[in-house]
Amino acid sequence: MSVVEPWLHVMAAVIRGQEGRILLAQRPPGKHQGGKWEFPGGKLEVGETPLQGLKRELHEELGIEVQHAQPLIKVRHVYPETAVLLDVWEVDVFTGEPHGREGQPVGWFETEQLSGLEFPPANYPIVTAARLPEVCLITPEPEDPAVFLHKLEVALQSGIRLVQFRAKRLLPDEYLALARETARLAHSFSARVLLNSPPVMLPEADGLHLTSAQLWQDHDWQPHNGWLSASCHSREELAQAAEIGVDFAFLSPVLPTLSHPGAAHLGWEAFAACVEQVNFPVYALGGLDNSHVVAARKRGGQGIAAIRSLWS
Ligand SMILES: Nc1nc2c([nH]c(=O)n2[C@H]2C[C@H](O)[C@@H](COP(=O)(O)OP(=O)(O)OP(=O)(O)O)O2)c(=O)[nH]1
Ligand SMILES: [Mg+2]
């Protein structure tokens, strides 16, 4: 990504309606990327703040008044015609009945339908961000499988929808058996499971999670099914994660942690600066709990991930 590129600042919205459905519009034929589905929005005007621009665009294009919105992701993309900075916000409270005021078709879609639609090439990470929740549970080292699954169920009941199954001390067969049970239980709550360093990838998993060391191994990690995510601790590791094509990442430690007392941590400023360098969703990790979701979002993060604070 060139820093001298004159980026065209575009505001776009992931508008959430009933049961989490998302409102999309079709770009008018003849316009740039015409005919494709888009997250409604348009160019920021001189003198506007991003939120003002977002509100104006959604009023002009859909006739709605935004009541509450928060940043979701920023994506930079260079088209042959223009370089765009897509500044995407999530809108969860609005008034008015959205309709295509410029004659464009609009529709509500389930998050799971999004990956089957044709969007402009810049939109892939936005679709990932729209499908990912704000909070990810990373499991602590399992001791007794029955106790583990019970605690997992408690976490799922409390609203967890993304689980990174992390077990370093199990034998391969034990790992796979518990990973299968974890996926089965998570799926019964419509939650998804990433496998951290599995002996083999399981078809029932929703993604493969890489350690930061694996990022540098000469290996094709792309799983046949699901997402590819990675643990990162620096700008260099995030750049390497981008290089190998991860869908999203976890950046840590953001705050001091009990597990690594006295170790250096990034702090929110450095977290924000690192996230700004990449085009995919990044979870903040390290010393965090549910109360830090808004802080993470303000710094460009997808939300927070945690072990300790999300496990009973
Ligand atoms: N709104 C929106 N624009 C997108 C998305 N993906 C994507 O690549 N773009 C690009 C296409 C365009 O080059 C640019 C948005 O410009 P636009 O044509 O919608 O701008 P606008 O609403 O202000 O329209 P206009 O006044 O120029 O007619 O961003 C998306 O999901 N939503
Ligand atoms: Mg527009």
TrEMBL record:
> Cross-referenced SUPFAM superfamilies, in alphabetical order?
Nudix (SSF55811), Thiamin phosphate synthase (SSF51391)
Enzyme class of the recorded protein, top EC level: hydrolase
Residue ranges annotated for the Nudix hydrolase domain, each copy included: 6-134
Identify which cofactors the protein needs according to its UniProt entry: Mg(2+)
What's a single GO MF annotation on this record? 8-oxo-7,8-dihydroguanosine triphosphate pyrophosphatase activity
* Chain sites annotated for binding Mg(2+): 41, 61
Metal-binding found in the keyword field: yes
A single Pfam family, by name? TMP-TENI
Q: Where does 8-oxo-dGTP bind?
A: 27, 32, 38-41, 123
Q: What is its EC number?
A: 3.6.1.55
Q: Which UniProt keywords apply?
A: DNA damage, DNA repair, DNA replication, Hydrolase, Magnesium, Metal-binding, Mutator protein
Catalytic activity reads:
8-oxo-GTP + H2O = 8-oxo-GMP + diphosphate + H(+); 8-oxo-dGTP + H2O = 8-oxo-dGMP + diphosphate + H(+)
Q: Does the keyword DNA repair apply?
A: yes
Which Gene Ontology biological process is one annotated for this entry?
thiamine biosynthetic process
Please state which protein family the record places this protein in.
Belongs to the Nudix hydrolase family.
Q: Return the protein name.
A: 8-oxo-dGTP diphosphatase
The protein's organism comes out as Thiothrix nivea (strain ATCC 35100 / DSM 5205 / JP2)
